[in-house]
Amino acid sequence: MATIYERRQAGGVVYVLNYSAGGERMRRVVGSDRAEAERQLRELEEDFHVAERAGRVQTVPDSRARLRDIFGQYMQWQRDEGHALNTLQLSRRSIERFLDRTGARVVSDIGPTVGERFKQVLRAEGKLAPATINLALAHTSRMLKWAASPQRRQCETNPLEGIRHLSTMKESEEEEKDAPTEEEFRAILAASTPNVRRLWVVIAETGLRKGEAIALTWRDIDLDGRTLEVRTSTCKTRRHYKLDLSSVAVQALQEERAARLSRGSLDGLGPDGPVFVTRKGTLWRPNGVWDRLECAMRK
């Protein structure tokens, strides 16, 4: 059952559609045009196949389900779930970008070829970063997965499921590079400054990501127990785990601490102080770590 009601506000009257979909009460603001509101009302009544069963309203999966209707319901669901405002704004912009550029009106208009064409066209234009294009695909796919869930059954499947995202690496970085040999790694260490050398030794011995390594604090290090702890807040996969330290890694950490002490300052050596800092005593940036590596490789 869908109805139109008037909402009076400072600028005049705004017409709002009030309807039920997937067992949820939804609202859609149409605007100040009564005729347009009535037209959209007729479309809703035509597109939604609703049946009363066991006191619940259920929608029949339909490849002709209108994407704008699903979009409105999905955004309302996110608001009801308490999603943050910035998350809602990003989701809205991303999905609108996909729908506007593809011209898709119903679920059956979307398929793998549509997603691939969307990627290629926007990539060729060069106005949007690959990460932004990927966000449009990801949020639209998430919306369709939500619509295809057993609780809502507004479409049979998610037609964007499994579509590959664009690489976010620069073209110069996309070429495959072999990992340095042991001899090459020793040469890199020899060409690095002592503080960078110790950082790379710990990364190589533990397998930490660069972001995880530069986020380590002395609280995370147990030199006596020869263990290292990676916290959930700093782990890319949001896991908490411990690693055993090799004698080489322990030696590098001991040298790092001794070098900091030799400067005559205890700043940053407390439990919450960073383990690795630059020669100026500032925090490392992830890109700064790779810059030092490339500099050493050129030598």
TrEMBL record:
PROSITE patterns: CB, TYR_RECOMBINASE. Keywords: Coiled coil, DNA recombination, DNA-binding. One of its GO terms (molecular function) is DNA binding. InterPro entries: CB, DNA_brk_join_enz, Integrase-like_cat_sf, Integrase_catalytic, Integrase_recombinase_N, Tyrosine_recombinase_XerCD. Residues 175-299 form the Tyr recombinase domain. Residues 65-148 form the Core-binding (CB) domain. It comes from marine sediment metagenome. It holds the Pfam family Phage_integrase. Residues 27-54 form a coiled coil. This is Tyr recombinase domain-containing protein. SUPFAM superfamilies: DNA breaking-rejoining enzymes. GO terms for biological process: DNA integration; DNA recombination.
